[in-house]
Design a protein that fits this description.
The complex is a heterodimer of chains A (78) and B (420). By secondary structure, chain A is an alpha+beta fold. Chain A has 3 helices and 5 strands. The model of chain A has no long low-confidence stretch (mean pLDDT 92). By secondary structure, chain B is of the alpha/beta class. Chain B contains 19 helices and 12 strands. The chains are: A alpha+beta (78), B alpha/beta (420). Chains A and B meet through helix 1 of A and helix 5 and helix 19 of B.
């Protein structure tokens, strides 16, 4: 099971993640991304959402263990 | 993406009618022409004597896809003539002239100042400044909101966020403003853009500030964090690199936020009763800020350059072509935003709406978006608290500023009942 964590101290509301993985992240009234648990998109979309963040605000966990480095494996674009 | 194997893919056509997004004669009032382009030639070539030739992209999907395709469309800063960009060594380029991997580290350097966690400490001060600015004119019956409110507030906010002394805000504001005047353009010897001359005194002032941050007892502020920052390989940034990025953040955080504040209040006053409605129901302020960023993107276009032949929509963009990605047009694309695309709908962003491009899209999405939004919330709340009702001065006519990438009213004279 995949779960996302969004660092509110970093998120600037770019909304890339919400468009890529709409069943795993939503945007709240303060334009900050909020994870939906459990993440409801295919793994590839969730990983792409992690990579898409221009502010490196998203981390991803599988069964409680962080796998952000695996999700970000491709050269980071942020 | 493959080259033009698909026979439907053709090169960009010349813009129908005469439109050049870099020429302030056109950029001051571009809406009708952009609407024509979206309908007739969504990707077109703009050529005009005295201006760089650019490929103008106007549809929401094409603009978004081009922004996200940073491997094909590199960032060369805001000058559509790449000459200066190409002559600048990579380690002297600002973040908006960089692509990954160099961009990635400089982005993190900028985040040391601009991430919400870093900005939050400054917000109490920003609220106090907003209240003090409004108090200066609330007892009168009129004000010019661009000069008295929308300009001074962002420069004070960004100076505070960076850790610069308060007196630097006014120096800073004069420095930023001086680059974008008609006379600065004349001095640059070009028909577009701003001054290319650096202000030596201000650069020296900043470098003195940066040098002071090398001391062991330097204050824990954004510039100190930049000085102490190390990449994974242990290397830091030179004072020169920190200096150009501090100047970029100062620049980028000033005029654009002035535009957001001015555009937003203009729209609230343009619809009778809307300013007062938001005053009574402050839950509308957040959505109103987003709608302002959509309808009136503070930066009306952003520049990219193709690193290879690449297809956008049905159009082949050739290696070396310079793109003008029109955020202003994408944000008003009827196909994305519906029939009300060109109207200010205060509740559009109260529910779910597509992402607007007011802060750009993708890896270069505005690193100061949080500060801009918070400055708008605090600034407009200060206005609404002190002046519950106001209107545009009788006979007011909207006039856009004359710098080609900026989109905001030059002046915003308002009248109201004076606060007792």
């Amino acid at each position: 099971m995949l779960e996302l964590n969004v660092d509110r101290g970093r998120c600037q509301g770019a909304r890339e993640c919400v468009q890529i993985a709409p069943a795993s992240v939503r945007i709240d009234a303060t334009m900050t991304a909020v994870p939906i648990a459990p993440a409801g998109d295919p793994e590839s979309a969730i990983f792409e959402a992690v990579r898409s963040c221009p502010n490196n605000a998203i981390r991803v966990f599988r069964d409680g263990a962080e796998i952000s480095a695996i999700a970000s494996d491709r050269s980071r674009n942020g | 993406m493959a080259e033009a194997a698909d026979h439907h893919v053709v090169g960009a056509a010349p813009a129908q009618g005469s439109f050049h997004p870099i020429d302030s004669a056109d950029s001051r009032c571009p809406h009708a022409k952009l609407q024509d382009l979206r309908a007739s030639t969504p990707i077109s070539i703009a050529e005009r004597e005295g201006f760089p030739t650019v490929t103008v992209v106007t549809k929401y999907d094409d603009v978004a896809n081009s922004f996200r395709n940073w491997r094909a469309f590199g960032n060369i800063s805001s000058d559509p003539d790449p000459t200066r960009h190409d002559a600048t060594p990579e380690d002297e380029r600002v973040i908006i002239g960089l692509d990954p991997p160099a961009h990635t580290w400089v982005r993190r350097l900028s985040q040391l100042a601009m991430a919400p966690a870093a900005v939050d400490d400054a917000l109490r001060y920003v609220a106090d400044v907003a209240e003090a600015l409004v108090a200066r004119f609330a007892g009168q019956s009129r004000a010019e909101l661009v000069g008295e409110w929308a300009e001074p507030l962002p420069s004070r906010a960004i100076a505070r966020v960076l850790g610069l002394p308060e007196e630097s805000a006014s120096i800073l504001h004069d420095w930023v403003a001086s680059q974008f005047t008609e006379s600065a353009r004349a001095a640059s010897g070009r028909r577009y853009g701003g001054s290319i001359r650096e202000h030596g005194d201000f650069v020296e002032y900043l470098h003195d500030q940066i040098r002071q941050r090398h001391r062991d007892d330097a204050p824990d502020d954004a510039i100190t964090r930049m000085v102490r920052y190390r990449r994974d390989d242990g290397s830091g940034f030179t004072d020169t690199q920190i200096g150009i990025h501090v100047r970029l953040l100062l620049n980028a955080g000033n005029e654009t936020t002035t535009s957001l504040l001015s555009n937003l209040v203009y729209r609230l006053l343009e619809q009778p009763g809307l300013y007062e409605q938001v005053g009574r129901d402050r839950s509308l302020l957040g959505p109103a800020i987003e709608e302002s960023l959509r309808l009136d993107a503070p930066l009306q276009l952003l520049i990219r350059r193709a690193n290879r032949n690449e297809v956008v929509g049905d159009t082949l963009v050739r290696d070396g072509d310079v793109l003008a990605l029109s955020t202003l047009s994408a944000n008003r694309d009827e196909q994305t935003w519906g029939e009300s695309a060109s109207q200010f709908a205060v509740e559009r962003f109260a529910g779910s709406a597509p992402a607007h491009m007011g802060f750009g899209v993708g890896i270069h999405h505005c690193v100061g978006a949080y500060l801009a939004r918070q400055t708008a919330i605090l600034g407009v709340n200060a206005l609404l608290d002190a002046i519950p009702s106001m209107r545009l001065e009788d006979g007011y006519g909207y006039e856009n500023v004359s710098y080609h990438i900026f989109h905001r009213p030059r002046r915003l004279p308002v009248t109201f009942a004076p606060r007792p």
